[in-house]
Design goal:
This protein is an alpha/beta fold and 209 residues long. The protein has eight helices and six strands, in the order αβαββααβαβαααβ.
Length: 209
Amino acid sequence: DLGAGTGKFTGRLVATGAQVIAVEPVAQMLEKLSEAFPDVLAVSGTAMDLPLPDASVDVVICAQAFHWFASTEALTEIARVLKPGGKLGLVWNLRDARASWVPKLDAIVNALEGDTPRYYTGAWRQAFPHSAFGPLQEQRYSHGHSGSPEDVIFNRVRSTSFVAALPAEERAKVDEQIRALIAAEPDLRGRDVVTVPYETAAFVAVKNS
């Protein structure tokens, strides 16, 4: 689990019965992951310098992470630790813009991104094709995140890296914009429980034998 963060996706991997190694460069995140998943081997490392032997793992998964380090060099290092025929999996959860109000919410968030790497810009794709891997295969899955607006809209936006880094006054302005959006949308206004539609974009590349 490369770029594992605090382990949001790690638990999904553990649930498969796989032996999971979590790699994360930020010490505080790695500490939280270790507390949540004491049976997972959690190690400090980056996509450019994986603390693993050559041809030692079956799968490398990057969940909500690959856009931060997408490069030829990272793919070369990932290929080094994968066994022949091993797989690289890339996963992103994206708000589904087919719901009419989602692009309006995305516009509030995207206006603050600056030069932060993001999935939707497509810049990460420039790392492919790579000589160590076969073609990138893509699948899409639809699902919803249901709960209170505070949880599934406000807290989700607040947890976005560049929003969380804003001064308190700026974060309060973001909250005001979201409140105005909710008040203006019949699908959201006055509801205790809302569903944010998501689409999971999943990609697989197989290491050449």
